[in-house]
């Protein structure tokens, strides 16, 4: 296209039908009386953004650290570690391809087809990430309803599994009904159906709400988070997916790994977004109160395998649990985490598995990382 910066509506032009673009408008040369003039123009078509396979993440280039002549400070080194742990998982995710999942989706009439599509696509991706650990076609039934329908969700899961969801309703009924259009929402992994499929559920926002899928930073990691729980059930702790036995994984690892991996996978192409959701997790009010009011090592030690799964996340699993897993990733990468998970199952003890893989007693390690975690909180101003 030739440069015709001077084109203005009403100016004379040379030949009817020729066009010119200027100031974002496309002008056409038209005959007006005896004269040939540029018409008033229409907005020039802009290239449409290409839909990516990951609607949850807006890819932005990872900022390159600016080299400084001075020695890095302790805080700089901690920032590097945050990125190093993120890169370990995000780089695997960037190479992963979506898989074919075996999902049976049971959605209420409140749930729109486009919401189901987003959820399905994200399941396919995260199942692809874990494809060499757990077969992506793991049969999973996903019950999806609106917050206001939490009783329908519970009764559907009771009907499918034959288990009671009284404890579930006890924990989630009142907040779900109190916030039909958010910001509260729930998602979870809840044992198995009678036909042996894993059971996942989501309580989202109703049709009449502004958005059906939560727009907070965290929802961009929720589907990924839940698949991590499915993987935990398959390779580390069968009790999580209704395959019996005692609870093996400590609460801090269960929710911590699901949060850390969910965040890194969900924001794999958006490090700034990742830092925001990491902060969001650490700043969650209930989590933060735990951190401020109690000693960190003691809180983390309390989040063991006996801790209630219904309150684990908000009691610190999502925050300091995720920080602990970040530090495991820094020690021995994704491979170490996977070795740990497999050893939990073979040793039937997460403490034995921890010593085996990381060469240190878990409590000794927790005392050490608790000091670092205090600084991690300070670095983000919490
Ligand atoms: Zn979780």
Protein model, in words:
The chain is α/β, with parallel strands linked by helices and 382 residues long. It folds into three domains: 1-46; 99-215, no CATH class; 243-382. It contains twelve helices and eight strands. It has helices spanning 74-95, 113-129, 150-161, 166-178, 222-235, 251-266, 271-283, 285-293, 296-302, 313-347, 350-358, 362-379, and strands spanning 19-22, 25-32, 35-38, 42-43, 102-107, 139-146, 186-192, 198-204. Strands 1, 2, 3 and 4 form a four-stranded antiparallel β-sheet that branches. Helix 1 crosses helix 10, helix 5 (222-235) crosses helix 6 and helix 10 (313-347) packs across helix 11. The longest helix is centred in the C-terminal third of the chain and has 35 residues, at 313-347. Zinc ion binds next to helix 5 and helix 6. Zinc ion (ZN) binds next to helix 5 and helix 6.
Question: How would the blueprint of this fold be written?
Answer:
Blueprint lengths: L18 E4 L2 E8 L2 E4 L3 E2 L30 H22 L6 E6 L5 H17 L9 E8 L3 H12 L4 H13 L7 E7 L5 E7 L17 H14 L15 H16 L4 H13 L1 H9 L2 H7 L10 H35 L2 H9 L3 H18 L3
Parallel strand pairs: 5-6, 6-8
Antiparallel strand pairs: 1-2, 2-3, 2-4, 7-8
Helix pairs in contact: 1-10, 2-5, 5-6, 6-7, 6-10, 8-10, 9-12, 10-11
Zinc ion (ZN) binds next to helix 5 and helix 6.
């Amino acid at each position: 296209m030739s440069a015709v910066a001077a084109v203005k509506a009403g100016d004379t032009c040379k030949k009817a039908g020729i066009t010119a673009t200027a100031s974002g408008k496309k002008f056409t040369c038209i005959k007006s009386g005896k004269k040939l003039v540029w018409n008033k123009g229409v907005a020039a078509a802009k290239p449409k953004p290409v839909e990516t396979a990951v609607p949850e993440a807006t890819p932005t280039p990872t900022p390159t650290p600016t080299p400084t002549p001075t020695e890095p400070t302790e805080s700089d080194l901690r920032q590097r570690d945050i990125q190093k742990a993120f890169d370990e998982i995000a780089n695997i995710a960037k190479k992963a391809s979506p898989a074919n999942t075996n999902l049976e989706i049971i959605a209420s009439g409140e749930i729109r087809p486009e919401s189901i599509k987003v959820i399905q696509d994200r399941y396919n991706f995260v199942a692809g990430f874990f494809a060499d650990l757990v077969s992506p076609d793991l049969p999973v039934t996903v019950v999806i309803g609106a917050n206001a329908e939490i009783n329908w969700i519970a009764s559907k899961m009771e009907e499918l599994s034959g288990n009671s969801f009284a404890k579930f309703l006890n924990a989630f009924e009142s907040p779900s009904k109190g916030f039909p259009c958010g910001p509260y929402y729930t998602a979870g992994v809840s044992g198995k159906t009678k036909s042996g499929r894993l059971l996942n559920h989501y309580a989202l926002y109703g049709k009449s709400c502004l958005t059906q899928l939560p727009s907070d930073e965290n929802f961009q990691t929720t589907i990924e988070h839940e698949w991590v729980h499915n993987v935990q059930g398959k390779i580390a702790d069968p009790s999580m997916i209704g395959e019996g036995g005692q609870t093996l994984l400590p609460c801090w690892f269960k929710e911590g790994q699901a949060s850390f991996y969910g965040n890194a996978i969900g924001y794999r192409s958006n490090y700034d977004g990742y830092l925001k959701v990491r902060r969001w997790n650490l700043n969650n009010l209930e989590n933060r109160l735990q951190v401020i009011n109690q000693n960190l090592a003691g809180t983390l030690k309390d989040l063991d395998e006996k801790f209630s799964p219904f309150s684990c996340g908000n009691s610190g699993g999502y925050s300091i649990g995720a920080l602990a897993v970040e530090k495991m990733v820094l020690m021995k990468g994704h491979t170490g985490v996977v070795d740990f998970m497999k050893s939990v199952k073979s040793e039937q003890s997460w403490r034995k598995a921890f010593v085996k893989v990381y060469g240190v007693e878990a409590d000794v390690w927790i005392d050490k990382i608790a000091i670092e975690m205090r600084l991690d909180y300070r670095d983000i101003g919490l």
